Amino acid sequence: MDSSLATDKKLLKIKKTKKDKPILSNIVLYIFLIVLAILSFLPFYIMMINATRTSNEIATQLNFLPGKALMSNYRRMMSAVNMWQGFKNSLIISTSSTILAAYFGTLTAYGFSKYKFKGNKILFWVVLGSMMFPAQLGLIGFFKVASVFNLIDSRWALIIPAIANANIVFFVKLYIDAAVPNEVIESARIDGCSEFMIFNKIVIPMIIPSIATMSIFTFITSWNNYLIPLVVLYDDSKYTVPILTAMAKGVYRTDFGAVYVAIALSMVPIMIVFAFCSKYIIGGLTAGAVKQ
Amino acid sequence: MKRMHLMRTITLLLCAILIMLSFTACSKPVESPAPAETPQEEPQEATEKTPEDFTGTLTFWHFNNDEGPKLAEAFMAKYPNVVVETQITADTDLAYQNKITSAIRAGSGMPDVFAAENAFVKRFVNLPGGYANISAAPYHAETLVGRNIPYTVDIGKDNSGNIKALSWQACPGGVGYKRDLALEYLGTDNPDEIAAMLSTPEKILETARNLKQASNGKVKLFVGTEDLYKIYVGSRTQPWVKDNKLMIDPKMMEFVDIAKTLREEGLEGGIRQWTPAWSAAVADDEHVAYAIPTWAIQWVVAVNAGDEAEAGRWGIATPIPYYEGGTWAGVSEQSQNKELAWEFVKFLATDADHLRDWAKATGDFVNHLDIVDELMNDSDFVNKTVDQNTYQVYGPMVDKIDGGLITQYDDQMRVAFLNIMQTYLAGNINKEEFLQEFKDQIQADITDLIIE
Amino acid sequence: MISKKIRKDHNGYIFITPFFIILSIFVIYPILYSIAISFTKWDGSIIPPEFNGINNYKKLVNDAFFRRSIRNTWIMWLGCIIPQMIFGLGLAVFLSERKLKGKSFFRWVYYLPNLVTMASVGALVFFLMNWPAGSVNRMLMTFGIIDEPYNFLENVFAARATISITLWWMWFGYSMIIFMAGIKAIPEEYFEAARVDGASKWQVFWNITLPCLKPIILYQVVTSVIGGLTMFDVPYVLTQARGNPQATTLTMVMYLYNTTFANYNFGYGATIGVGLFVIVMIFVAIAFRLINKNSAHD
């Protein structure tokens, strides 16, 4: 509370000159933000707490305090599935997918944004259009392609298609349109930079926030991806975390304790990635870059 | 000219990447099923092969991590030179079925042997390219299934009557009840007396009302109406679909009426099956009865009863014969090693020694009449969860089950019927609307079906 | 000069080529394949699809379930997207501009719901809203607000609202972050200039922030039209896969999924997919026109 009071005072000083009613509006705002924060955190918290409860407790009551079943839940989960191997698989797939998607997506976005080649608009609509087709249906043809390329039961089937991430292209293109002035590119050309050097050395640093933002989402989407890995991977030593989470429950046995341990564990890496990347979103890099 | 040049560059690039792609794909070790090391031209009947003579590797797909690996282990114990690689995919959101149909379509990647659950086995035995026809030479499955329980053999047949898959279990069903609650509020925990109390719809209602009164409304007879559905579905006299026509058996409408009365008078728990609350209610003191087919003693009662799993708190009564569940397995048409695959399937479903061991190790109700007879008369074979010999409980029912009641549409029927019935039970539509809604849904689900 | 410029523009092809190769193989081919099977009758087996002309499309136009699913999807999507955009934009502005303590904490916590898989969220919400023993029912009964447990998920309004609120809860933090990234791209000079001119906060928001966010708003609207109209997991888990009660929460993709994978009607499933594709395409085009037209005025 101390800290918020300090902020209120600061704001008070700033705003008094503008004849506003700052204290009240700030308190209202804080209450609102805190209520929303609780709402966002609560279900997440319940999932974490459930990981420490027995299946019966999870099924019969809403738990707010940790129980004692964490270790036994963990042991049952590990005896059902090899979760750490799953972590390794998921990390390999999600990390490489994200890197590929971010780099090639940005490359493509830049191509669309700064080169007015013939067919630019139509091809861009093709990119947009590819997002609009329901993934569940595309799966039928996707499986066919994957088996033609001998990618069934291979992690490559999940990594290579990441290059074609239309979402990144769309977002980053809009961002480049707004944040990268043509003059910067022209002046680099006059300085004798090659087109790829301009992209790698000048454009990428200017648009880091947009790449970081999209990378987070790509990583999380890839990490949580369930349907495609499930259909494409056969060998359970290649299974990813969401598949193993579903498996931990059992078919007839409904072991919710083991499932919640798996869910809680599976959220840890994405929380770390998010905490790490979110700095880049707010880093204020753009503001500086555009001023040049 | 420039455009031509550009197009060529792009094409070249495309080719280069395609080649790279296929190269990376090929360079990784592909786990193709091991080549058939056993000479296939060798006539089967001529030599009596011992289990040791079989060598090689099989892939086996199953949807249940609790069962699949154990089946493979049992086989490998008897066939020491064979390796069975079990690959599990849970059928959450139909994923297991999706995976199998995808692999069948792709024409590659199918395992040597794959399992199918009751809910979709009829569909799979009729799916072209799926299971090999094991009625044909060289398998001649008919000659081996004489001691299997007939209804399970019928379910494993396709629409032309060829056997495609075999099962190792039979799943007759009873009503599981909590003995302590029954004794306290109904005055008895004897299975026969409980069975008598539940033998007709009128008696079910009467018993439920008595229970409510005796417990001051605290205790309910059934955990939910869906458990009662299993019993009613198993006691119909005609299948859901006959001659491509939808048949709504009078039993089903009887079920709807009794479910409505139970709901309105607060005589059932209203809990839908396989929900967390449903699992948890196994251990509570408020819900007396569940539909318990053979496997559910282990997978519904014991796993959810916690420390009381072996305390004999439960009893099984058998008021109405029905069946639910079961798993089948067959040889994949794509298998490169069909002889060994068939040996595995044969072992699972017909090897009497294995089935005896399996029954003793897992408590499963196995699909072999000799073993059923043997265990029925084995006074030491008592299941601790229910304090009864499960073969004595379920055994008399096996020849009353009609395998002809099962169609490939049963799962669609069940989902549509129960979901729409929820809306009816909640009081949001009347019975006529319920029936109409059900027919509309089924027509949308199964477009070719004739619905009157 | 001019010829040099043209040559530079052709370099664009090189930039987009790797992307398009992969897109063609793994995305466009499957789409074309689906479009092809939408003209057939096929059960998804190795028996080849049987050409069926435009019969599937004729059926689609008169399909009561498809119409219901369009309506349901729109209702639930609007119930989610309007609050999602308001919260996302509002929070982004507050957390970017105001000198608030704990900004980064709030940003982190609001995004948490998006980390969990849809299926887990669906299962949790089902547990809360369940009849008769769901937590919400128990809470309401404990506080004496209701005497009998209320069957929320069998009431049309409550079931739809539950789905909309769940999706809003999952996605407002995402919108917030996207808007924040957009606000960060607005040159600081604009704000300074406005302050020097003595503009109020509201005027700054209306005349600077909002116009500069046009591309981001476009992105948000387009991606949420796509994401919203293809919604699947949450209603699938919450309504037992069939859109209870009476298919009032059945979404287009649920209908597609059930038709294809539960009922093995691959041909008609693909037709539903193409129908959905066309609908989404129309609304994305409208969104582009509306938003780009507005920005032309500025």
UniProtKB/TrEMBL annotation, chain A:
<keyword id="KW-0812">Transmembrane</keyword>
<protein>
    <submittedName>
        <fullName>Carbohydrate ABC transporter membrane protein 2, CUT1 family</fullName>
    </submittedName>
</protein>
<keyword id="KW-0472">Membrane</keyword>
<feature type="transmembrane region" description="Helical">
    <location>
        <begin position="122"/>
        <end position="143"/>
    </location>
</feature>
<dbReference type="InterPro" id="IPR035906">
    <property type="entry name" value="MetI-like_sf"/>
</dbReference>
<feature type="transmembrane region" description="Helical">
    <location>
        <begin position="23"/>
        <end position="46"/>
    </location>
</feature>
<keyword id="KW-1003">Cell membrane</keyword>
<feature type="transmembrane region" description="Helical">
    <location>
        <begin position="257"/>
        <end position="282"/>
    </location>
</feature>
<feature type="domain" description="ABC transmembrane type-1">
    <location>
        <begin position="87"/>
        <end position="277"/>
    </location>
</feature>
<feature type="transmembrane region" description="Helical">
    <location>
        <begin position="197"/>
        <end position="220"/>
    </location>
</feature>
<feature type="transmembrane region" description="Helical">
    <location>
        <begin position="155"/>
        <end position="176"/>
    </location>
</feature>
<keyword id="KW-1133">Transmembrane helix</keyword>
<dbReference type="Pfam" id="PF00528">
    <property type="entry name" value="BPD_transp_1"/>
</dbReference>
<keyword id="KW-0813">Transport</keyword>
<dbReference type="GO" id="GO:0005886">
    <property type="term" value="C:plasma membrane"/>
</dbReference>
TrEMBL record, chain B:
<protein>
    <submittedName>
        <fullName>ABC-type glycerol-3-phosphate transport system, substrate-binding protein</fullName>
    </submittedName>
</protein>
<keyword id="KW-0732">Signal</keyword>
<dbReference type="InterPro" id="IPR006059">
    <property type="entry name" value="SBP"/>
</dbReference>
<feature type="region of interest" description="Disordered">
    <location>
        <begin position="30"/>
        <end position="51"/>
    </location>
</feature>
<feature type="signal peptide">
    <location>
        <begin position="1"/>
        <end position="27"/>
    </location>
</feature>
<dbReference type="Pfam" id="PF01547">
    <property type="entry name" value="SBP_bac_1"/>
</dbReference>
<dbReference type="InterPro" id="IPR050490">
    <property type="entry name" value="Bact_solute-bd_prot1"/>
</dbReference>
UniProtKB/TrEMBL annotation, chain C:
<dbReference type="GO" id="GO:0055085">
    <property type="term" value="P:transmembrane transport"/>
</dbReference>
<comment type="similarity">
    <text>Belongs to the binding-protein-dependent transport system permease family.</text>
</comment>
<feature type="transmembrane region" description="Helical">
    <location>
        <begin position="204"/>
        <end position="222"/>
    </location>
</feature>
<keyword id="KW-0472">Membrane</keyword>
<keyword id="KW-1133">Transmembrane helix</keyword>
<feature type="transmembrane region" description="Helical">
    <location>
        <begin position="157"/>
        <end position="183"/>
    </location>
</feature>
<feature type="transmembrane region" description="Helical">
    <location>
        <begin position="74"/>
        <end position="96"/>
    </location>
</feature>
<protein>
    <submittedName>
        <fullName>Carbohydrate ABC transporter membrane protein 1, CUT1 family</fullName>
    </submittedName>
</protein>
<feature type="transmembrane region" description="Helical">
    <location>
        <begin position="266"/>
        <end position="291"/>
    </location>
</feature>
<feature type="transmembrane region" description="Helical">
    <location>
        <begin position="12"/>
        <end position="32"/>
    </location>
</feature>
<dbReference type="InterPro" id="IPR000515">
    <property type="entry name" value="MetI-like"/>
</dbReference>
<keyword id="KW-0812">Transmembrane</keyword>
<keyword id="KW-0813">Transport</keyword>
<dbReference type="InterPro" id="IPR050809">
    <property type="entry name" value="UgpAE/MalFG_permease"/>
</dbReference>
<dbReference type="GO" id="GO:0005886">
    <property type="term" value="C:plasma membrane"/>
</dbReference>
